[in-house]
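Quick illustration, no need to memorize.
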Amino acid sequence: AASKLTGSYYVVDKNNIIRDKLSETDPADSWFYSLLKEKGDMFYNVDYNKTLGITNFWFDCKIFNSRGEALGFAGLAVNLDTSIEKMKSSIPSMNSWLGFIDSNNEFLISSKGDMEGKKVTDITGKSLPIEDFSGLEYYIDKDLGKVIIAKKQIEGLPYYIVLASPINEFIPPMLSILRLPIIWSAAILLIVI
């Protein structure tokens, strides 16, 4: 909860209720003052909470007095720090990355710690669509070669999940494919003999 009347916000950490002051001059509190001015009564955002020291996905509901004036917010937070750890453990290969981005293509969280706050194009440069595969793009990395990018919007929200994977980590080199019949022929020959 965050209140314009008290100038405070309150968060619950396990069994403790923690109170902290809001400040119009603190950039970390700008969400509160900007959302008070916004039309609408339901908001969501990703924010690092300085009091708890964690990154959360917030669902905030604006609270009004009987005259229709905004008093503050009541909210629910989902801890994204555990999601970040799950992202890191679920990438398909060593050089792949997974990101959670906003509608401006800016990373909110990622499987690599140095992407937050950057735009996707800051990492990929120019990407090109892959013919006959809607929603897939690729870019060329100087060290990894061609990297495939898949981007999917989270239904009903202005957020996306992006996965980038170097193609050479998924398509075996032609020489190794050509060697397979020789290996299988040799194995069968050994079994027969």
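The CA atoms of residues 7 and 33 lie 11 Å apart.
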